[in-house]
Amino acid sequence: NRYIYTFEEGGKEMANLLGGKGAGLAEMKKLGLNVPDGFIITTKACIAYQKSNKMPEGLNDSIKENMKVLEKKTGKGFGSDKNPLLVSVRSGAPISMPGMMDTILNVGLNDRSLKGLTESTKNRRFALDSYRRLKQMFGTVVYNLPHDEFEEIIQEKKEKYGRKNDTDLKADELEEIGKEFDEVYKKHGKTFPQDPEKQLFLSIEAVFNSWNSPRAIAYREINKISNDLGTAVNIVSMVFGNTGNNSATGVAFTRNPNTGEKELFGEYLLNAQGEDVVAGIRTPRKISELEKQLPDAYRDFVKSAEILEKNYRDMQDMEFTIENGKFFMLQTRNGKRSARATVRIAVEMAKEGLITMEEAVLRVSPESLDILFHPQVKKSGKERVLGHGLAASPGAAIGQIVFSSDRAVELSRNKVKVILVRPETTADDVRGMSVSEGFLTQKGGMTSHAAVVSRAMGKPAVVGVESMKVNVRERSLTIDGTILREGDIITVDGTNGEFLLGVTDLEESQVGEHIEVLLKWSDTYRKLGIRSNANTPEEAIIARRNGGEGIGLARTERMFLGGDRIEIMRSMIMSKNAEDRQFNLTKLLPMQISDFTEFFRTMEGFPVIIRLLDPPLHEFLPDKEEVLNRIYSLKIKMIKANELKEIDELMTGINRENEMLGVIRSLEEFNPMLGFRGCRLGISFPEIYETQVRAIIRAAINVMSEGKKIIPEIMIPLVGTERELSILRERLEKVALDEKGHYNISYKFGTMIEIPRACVVADKIAAYADFFSFGTNDLTQMTFGYSRDDAEGKFMAKYLEEKIVPNDPFRTVDAEGVGELMKMAVERGRKGNKNLEIGICGEQGGDPETIEFCHKIGLDYVSASPYRIPIARLSAARAAL
Ligand code: ADP
Ligand code: MG
Ligand code: MG
User: Fold this and answer.
1) Ligand 1 centroid to 380 CA: how many Å?
2) Burial tier of 287 (Cβ tally within 10 Å: 0-12, 13-18, 19+)
3) DSSP 8-state secondary structure symbol assigned to residue 413
4) Catalytic site residue from 46, 679, 759, 841
5) Is 514 a catalytic residue?
6) For the chain, what is the mean pLDDT?
7) How many angstroms separate the alpha carbon of residue 772 from the centre of ligand 3?
8) Burial class (CB in 10 A: 0-12, 13-18, 19+), 83
9) Nearest to residue 40, comparing CAs of 112, 102, 90, 101?
């Protein structure tokens, strides 16, 4: 059972066993980059440790042997008073969990080796600084001593000796700090172990244990990472960024993680160690300045970064240290990035030939496009900009400010939208961040915790607003004399790095050039057509602009509402016979023709599916309560009235309302969604559909005479038997032919497939249909027997929680059940009519997983809402690759 690998023995493909960090260190060694020596204790060792709660058999000996080897390689001795070997003990899970687990630096320093380090480096200040760091990290990580107590001591000394920064502290003062740190241990009943081996083993166990710290568990839960992966432990010989101004430590990306631009992007600090950069102890410098300050090291860095990107074929997030001018790589991994950067990097890497176009398409998740199309702040000039910081993650977020993660979680339970405001965020805030709309921090740079996490979550963030003071205890923030308290509403503009008072107007974000390119590539790979659901010309225009190739569903209900139309519609419904009905419908005809004409113009050259009237008629009538109230108040007036004429008028009014009430009662249904609607209406009241078809054909002729081509596809809803369709088709075809006259226009008749029975007898139905379109909302409702309008609010949450359904079936098609019916309908439908065109127009048609399914079962197209068309184009391409 082998628990240890040296860096020379590993590689990037071994991340499961060696953890991401270890595999990366090994890979960098292989590539010939300058990496300190070291070895890796595997994740298997961690799992064994977790199971038995003690170090697995043989591991301790193995560690000791490897330390001997490391001593030889480095020419240093562990705990030696001449030239001591110091190591870092670093966590490293197979999947990166930034900042979640622990790392201890400078292990191996004690009173004895301190002398060795002082003499070998001739730098007493540096040696003492390293020692106090070890005591601090070891104390907090291994013994859980309070971090603040150490920090307070440093603060006190800085004040006492008038030192502004940690780096200004003199050797003697650091020595004093170290001594007082010993007191902190004592106060909590501990002592700092002088035995280096004991330091090492306790540190390793602490890293193993950090796998199960509450915050690590919470992080894995949120990010759906398995609990039994375990963490590896990396033992790395120390290199020092804190020997003076010739040394530095920093973090950087090979490309800008916010915009995606190709540039070395990051921050560093001179004379610092480890986490100083991320922790915001001093304000770090931009990486570009390193070129001037330490040019040789910078050049090495640029070269290393290039090698890494070529090798990993992806943007890298790197950690480095410079010791007396010499450059060392300490970590590399694929970097987290904003949605915007994801797209740009994928496209540019494909153009550079680093990856293929297919890979570029596969690298951008449809969800990240969704984020990109999130609205942006639209300024009118009247808003009040409260402050400026760094634009860490783009987009706009509006919400009430809260000052702690707990409060964020609490309020979000009641669906309150919150913005988390913190001095800076840490790993403990991840839960709160996951329920917030956006973030605002006082400290931190572009690589701070808040910045990294917000980009990964795709949430807007402004960080490092230095002129703002956050008072967590009082739940308030102060900026330029303005005080805001918990509950006040702000807008975070992560695109421009500002935050504003109150609710701000938002606008659609612009499609960037890189997205355009990516979507064009997607179009060459996808097999599915992309149409849009659109009910108005405005929506149709957006659909076209976003790349829609036609309309998959245009609902016509709207054409019976609004203005005097609703009154005509009501008279139509209350008609006593067919002539009356026809009379009223004829009044609506010109309005419908002009609606369709306008609509068709926007979709010139494309097919447009129009669904004939679907909802039950009572939806067009006033509410019953409302009518009852009106009758009641008319009756009250009647009691008070004394003139005959007035009484007469009131009587007429009452009679009219009573008639309406009668109609409402007669149309009342126990299950309206299973009731008198769709083609059932069409069968009983032929005039309604006939008028609609008349309007459609006349509009098509109008548009055609303007020289524009349009292909109307007339869709009959809610068909469950072949007779329904054959009767209606025959009738409507007659109307169409009649209207068409000598004009050379083509049209189609088809049906929505939304009743389970229709799927089963699809071959028979297809004999009368030119096209099918899956109405997966009703199909899901009727297959599950879940009322769509009640499921969401009543039991769906519980069902999801109990994993009774893996996804909300009204968002993602239930492949196992509903999907099986769809498959059947496709097969049988094509058997009945081999030219049958088949698509989907339900809500699920814009969902990436559903699109993949539709591709698999061989649909011709999907139809999504206008805003989701880019997502659909990308999803369809990914499904085909
Ligand atoms: P995390 O996973 O939280 O980033 P790391 O194990 O990467 O923790 O350690 C944090 C930082 O400590 C590193 O970025 C690096 O600056 C410093 N560090 C770790 N090991 C060494 C080492 N052997 N020599 C010098 N610095 C180190
Ligand atoms: Mg790190
Ligand atoms: Mg329906």
Assistant:
1) 46
2) buried
3) H
4) 841
5) no
6) 94
7) 13
8) middle
9) 90
Query: Which one of the ligands is nearest to 19 CA?
Result: 1
Question: How far is 832 from 767, CA to CA, in rounded Å?
Answer: 5
Percentage of the residues of the chain whose pLDDT score is greater than 90: 82
**C-alpha to C-alpha distances, 230 to 334, 336, 651, 873, nearest whole angstrom:** 20, 22, 82, 38
Please tell me whether residue 345 adopts helix, strand or coil conformation: helix
Give yes or no for residue 339 having a pLDDT over 70: yes
Q: How far is CA 194 from CA 38, 66, 370, 408, 769, in A?
A: 22, 21, 55, 44, 85
Q: Give the whole-angstrom CA distance, residue 338 versus residue 345.
A: 10
**pLDDT(373) > 80:** no
Q: Please name the residue whose Cα sits nearest to atom 24 of ligand 1.
A: 238
Q: Is 231 in the pocket of ligand 1 (CB under 6 A)?
A: no
**Residue whose CA is closest, atom 3 of ligand 1?**
99
Q: Is the pLDDT of residue 297 over 90?
A: yes
532 C-beta closer than 6 A to ligand 1: no
Give nearest CA residue, ligand 1 atom 9: 103
Is residue 792 predicted with pLDDT exceeding 80? Answer: no
Distance CA 370, CA 372 (A): 5
Using one digit for the tens of pLDDT, what is the confidence trace for 39-63? 999 999 999 999 999 999 999 999 9
Name residue, tokens 């562990």: 78
Does residue 103's CB lie within 6 angstroms of at least one atom of ligand 1? yes
Q: How confident is the model at residue 280 (pLDDT cuts 50, 70, 90)?
A: low
Task: Report whether pLDDT(380) > 90.
Answer: no
DSSP 263: S
Ligand 1 in reach of 236 Cβ (< 6 A): yes
Q: What is the spatial distance between Cα 111 and Cα 179, in angstroms, rounded to a whole number?
A: 11
CA of 174 to the centre of ligand 2 (A): 26
Nearest Cα residue to 282 out of 252, 248, 256: 248
> What's the gap in Å between 292 CA and the centre of ligand 3?
67
For the segment 617-637, the average pLDDT, to the nearest whole number, is 92
Q: What torsion, rounded to 10 degrees, do the Cα atoms 46, 51, 53, 54 define?
A: -60
pLDDT band at residue 86 under the 50/70/90 scheme: very high
Q: How far apart are CA 273 and CA 134, in angstroms?
A: 11
Answer whether 331 contacts ligand 1 (Cβ < 6 A).
yes
Amino acid at 102: D
Q: What percent of the chain has pLDDT over 70?
A: 100
* 582: helix, strand or coil: helix
Which amino acid does the sequence have at 207? V
CA distance 459 to 436: 8
Q: Which domains does the chain possess?
A: 4-237 (3.30.1490.20), 248-334 (3.30.470.20), 374-507 (3.50.30.10), 526-616+673-880 (3.20.20.60), 624-668 (no CATH)
- Cβ neighbors of 797 (< 8 A, separation 6 or more) are none
> What is the rounded distance in angstroms from the CA atom of residue 502 to the CA atom of residue 650?
50
449 is catalytic: yes
Ligand closest to the CA atom of residue 752: 3
Output helix, strand, coil percentages for the chain, rounded to the nearest 5: 50, 15, 30
> What is the reported pLDDT for 410?
93
CA–centroid distance, 90 to ligand 1, in Å, is 7
Tell whether ligand 1 has an atom less than 6 A from the beta carbon of residue 31: no
Nearest-CA residue for ligand 1 atom 1 is 99
Please report the DSSP string for 753-793 in residue order. E-SHHHHHTHHHHHTT-SEEEE-HHHHHHHHHT--HHHHHH
Cβ-count burial 335-348 (b if 16+ within 10 Å, e if not): bbbbbbbbbbbbbb
CA dist 649 and 175 (Å) reads 101
Other CB atoms within 10 Å distance of the CB of residue 172 = 12
Q: Find out whether the beta carbon of 319 lies less than 6 Å from any atom of ligand 1.
A: yes
